[in-house]
Amino acid sequence: MKKVFTVIASLFLLSSLMLAGCGKTDEAGSKENASGAAQSEKKVKIRIMGYNKEETRKSYLDYLKEKLPNVDIEFQFVDLKSFENMLRTQLAAGEGPDIFETSGSGAVYANAGYVEDLTDASFTSKYNDTGLMRYQGKVYTIPLQSWFEGIWYNKDIFEKQGLTPPKTWDEWMTIHEKLRQAGVKPQAMGAKSWEPMMKQSMGMLLNEFYTKPENKDFDAAFSEGTKKVSGNWNEVVSKWTETIQKGNITKDMLGIDYDQAQDEFATGKAAMWESGPWAAEALKQKNPNLNMGMFPIPGLTEGTGWLIGGPGSAFAVNKQSKHKDVAMQILELTATPEAQQALIKDNFGSSFLKGVDVQLPPEYEDSAAAFKEGHVYAPWITWPFGAIAEDYGKSLQEVLTGAKSVDDALKVLDDKAEQQRKSLKGN
Amino acid sequence: MIRKREFAFLLLIVPALLFYLIFYLYPVVSTFAHSFTDWSLLKRSVHFIGLENYKQLFHDDVVLTGIKNSIIYAVIMTIVQNALAVPLAVALDKNLRSKNLLRMVFFAPAVLSPLVVGFLWSYIMSSLDYGPLNQMLTQIGLGSVNWLGEPKLALYSVILTQVWQWTGWAMVIYLANLQGISKELFEAAHIDGANGWKTFWNITLPLLVPSITINTVLSMIGGLKVFDIIFSMTSGGPGHATESIVTVLLQRAFTDSQLGYASALGVLFSLFVMVVTFLQLRLMKRWEVS
Would you tell me which of A89, A330, B111, B239 could form a disulfide with A397, CB atoms 3.0–4.6 Å apart? Predict the structure, then answer.
C-alpha cells in the first residue's frame, strides 16, 4: 500500500510540475493572441535602450507618447560603463531592445547581423547626407542631434582673474597657471573614467594631426590596417602630456568620477571642466547662479580650436524586434522638425534633418567660430571596431601614473585594433 | 517490488537533475568546448583554433595583472578577515550587556549589496577636498591620501572596505560554533588554573577548526572570484591597476566581444580555483585531525 502511495505521490508531483510548465506557455500564448486580436485596445510595448539619461530625452519621449497613444514606450538608461556589454549580451540572446542608441555607423552590429538595414526607409532621405554614417555603403543608424563637447568655463571666475578663453594651447596653459596662483583649481576632471583624458588628447590631435592634408584619410587607413597610430600620433600626444607635466591633470583626479568633477565645477571650486551640452541642465540645477560658457580645445597655432564630436549618437532598429513596424513608426516620427526640436531642447546640438534651423544658445558663443568652420570631429567613432578607445583611455591613465609611456599607450591602441580587424575579417 | 520502489525515487530526482543539467552542466561543457574556438559576438561563424586561446592568455598583460590581483585580494581577505573575526566572536560570546547590539552592528554591513557599499565607499574615499575620509585625515594633520587613484594603493583600499563588510559575517559563523562548545570544558580548565590565553589556545581554537575551515575556504573562493566591489569602486582602474580575473573576463567577453578567448580564461580560472580549494581543504583537514 505504501509503495503504491509513493508511486502515485511522485507521479502527482511530476505531473503538477509539468502542468505548471504548460500553464506558463499557455498564458504567454493567450497573451500574444489577445494582443494580435485586439491590437487597438492593448498597448504595444517598445523598449528603447540608451546611454544618455532619460532627462536628456524627456521632451522627445513626451512628444512620442503624445503622437503614439497606443504604444507603451519604455526608455531604459544604461550607463556607458556597461552599455555595450549589456546590449551585446541581450542581442546575442535574442532579447535585445527594439530600438537602441549607438554611436556612429553601427558597423559592429551590422557586421554581426543584429540591425535592420535602413538605407531605403522612407525617413532616411529626409536627413542630410553629412549626418548619415554608412557601413559598406548601407545606412543602419538614424542620427539624433549632433554631439559635441568642449571645455566648460566659469565666466565669473575668468572675469575676476581678467582671463578670456584661450586662442592657443600656450595661452590655455598660462590660464591654468594664473588660476592656480590665484588659489583656484584650474580644471576639474573625473579621470577615474577613461574618457576625459582620451578626449582631451584627441583635441590636440584634431588641431595638430587631422588638419594636415596628408592625414585626411588617416582614419580610413587605420580602419583598414594600412596605417598605425604608432609613428603617426606620438609627437602630438607627447606634446599634449605637457598639461600633465604642468600639473593641470594630476594623479588625484584618478580618484574622482564624472559626477564628483561636475560638482566641483558647478560649485565654483574649479574654473574649467571638459564636457558637453547634456551636462548644462544638471549644472544649472546644482547651481542656478552658474555663469558658464564653452570654448573649443585650442591648438598650438592661433585658430578656432576644435570640439570633440560628430553625428554622435544615433538610433538603430533591432532586426529581431517583435514590433519592427512600430519601431520604424517611431523613427518616422523622429524625422519631423517637432521631434528634432524636442531632442535639442533637452540636450543642445544641431539637427541633421533637412530644413531644421537651430539657434546657438549664448553659452556656446565662444565656440561659434569652430562650428562655422565645421571643426567638430571624433576619430574613434568612425572606426569599425568595438570599444578600443577605452583601452587607449585606460593606457593614458597609466601614462598619468607613470607606468606607461606615450609610445606604449599608442602601441596598446594598435594591438587592440589589429585584434579587432582580425576578428572582423574572419567572417 | 524493490525495483519499482527505487524507480519511484529516481523519478523524484528528475526535476533537480534536469535543472542541474540545463543550468550547470550544459554551460560548463559549452564553455569548455567554446574555449577552443574563435567565437566572437562580432561575426556569425565559429572556427576551431585548438589551443591558440590558451597560448594567448599567457601573453596578455592585463590577464596576468588580473590573476595577480585576485590572488593578493583572496589571500589578504582570507587572513585578515578570519584573524579579526575569531577574536571578535570570542569577545562577543562573553556576557556583555550590549552583546546583541554589537553583534548586529558588526554584522550589518554584510546585509548590504556590494554595489551599494562600493558606491558609498568610493564617495567616502574620494580624493576631492570634501571626500569625508580625507577631510578627517586632514583635520587631524595627516594630509590627504589618494585612496582609489594611486595604482599601488587602490587595491588595498578596496580590500579595506571588504574586510569591513565581511568580518561580521565570518564572526557569526564562529559565534554559532562557539555556542556549541560545552561550558564544562571551560570550567574544567578554570579549575585546573588555566588563564584566558591558555584556554583560548588549547580549547577554543582547536574546537573552532571546523568553522575556520569553512570560513577560510569560502573567503578564498569568494576572494578569487571578486568582481562587484571592484566594478563599483574602481572599474579596474586607474589603468588596469585593480583589474581582477573576473573583471578582465567580462571585458574580454563583452567589451572586446571575444567570447572564445574569454571562455578559455574562464576554464583556466575554474581549474585554478578547484586546485586551490582542494589543497586548502587537504591542509585544513590535516589540522582538524591533529
Answer: B239
Residue extent(s) of CATH 3.40.190.10 domains in chain A: 44-146+311-353, 147-306+367-425
Distance CA A108, CA A119 (A): 17
Task: Let me know how long chain B is.
Answer: 290
**CB crowding A271-289: b at 16 or more within 10 Å, else e:** bbbbbbbbbbbbbeeebee
Give the CATH H-level superfamily of domain A147-306+367-425.
Answer: Periplasmic binding protein-like II (3.40.190.10)
Q: Under CATH, what is the fold of the domain B12-289?
A: MetI-like fold (1.10.3720)
Interface mutation target, options B10, B41, B252, chain A, most CBs of A under 10 Å: B41
Question: Which whole-number Å values give the CA distances from A36 to A30, A32, B29, in the listed order?
Answer: 10, 6, 40
A4-13, A197-206, A207-216: which has the minimum mean pLDDT? A4-13
Do residues A275 and A152 touch, judged by C-beta distance below 8 A? yes
Rg over alpha carbons for chain A, rounded to the nearest Å, is: 25
Question: Cα separations (Å) of A189 from A98, A164, A173, A257?
Answer: 35, 21, 16, 8
| ipTM of predicted assembly, 2 dp | 0.80
Q: SS3 of A44, please?
A: strand
Question: In the prediction, which pLDDT does A330 show?
Answer: 94
Beta-strand pair A292-295/A313-317? unpaired
Take residue B197 and report the three cell numbers written for it: 590565553
The interface residues of chain B toward chain A in range 90-119, judged by CB-CB distance below 8 A, are none
Q: Of A1-5, A352-356, B59-63, B94-98, which gets the smallest average pLDDT?
A: A1-5
Q: Give the three-class secondary structure for A315.
A: strand
Which tens digit of pLDDT belongs to each residue from A285-324?
A: 999 999 999 999 999 999 999 999 887 789 999 999 999 9
Mutate which of A108, A401, A413 to test chain B, going by most B C-beta atoms within 10 A? A401
Contact A6, B5 (CB under 8 A): yes
> Cell numbers at residue B214, please?
569553512
Give the integer Cα–Cα distance in Å for B220 and B266: 17
In chain B, residues with a C-beta closer than 8 Å to the C-beta of A257 are 122, 126
Chain B residues near residue A400 by CB distance under 8 angstroms: 238
- Do the Cβ atoms of B146 and A112 come within 8 Å? no
Assigned C-alpha cell, A390 = 577605452
CATH code of the region A44-146+311-353: 3.40.190.10
Retrieve residue A174's grid coordinates. 598660462
Distance from CA of B78 to the nearest CA of A (A): 27
Question: Is the CB of B250 inside 8 Å of chain A's CB atoms?
Answer: yes
pLDDT of residue B159: 96
> Distance from A11 to chain B by nearest Cα, in Å?
8
Give the number of C-alpha atoms closer than 13 A to the C-alpha of residue B177, restricted to the C-beta side.
22
CA distance B213 to B287: 9
- Asked if B56 reaches chain A (Cβ–Cβ under 8 Å), the answer is no
Q: Which of A10, A423, A424, A427 to mutate to test the interface with B (most CBs of B within 10 A)?
A: A423
pLDDT in tens, A185-202: 999 999 999 999 999 999
For residue B208, give the C-alpha cell: 573552532
Residues of chain A with C-beta less than 8 angstroms from the C-beta of B236: 394
Of B40, B42, B149, which is closest to A252 when you measure between CB atoms? B149
Among A32, A85, A344, A118, smallest CA distance to B262 is for A85
* B25 secondary structure, DSSP code: I
Distances from the Cα of B128 to the Cα of A280, A304, B125, B239, angstroms? 22, 33, 9, 19
Query: Scanning the structure block, which residue is given the C-alpha cell 508531483?
Result: A13
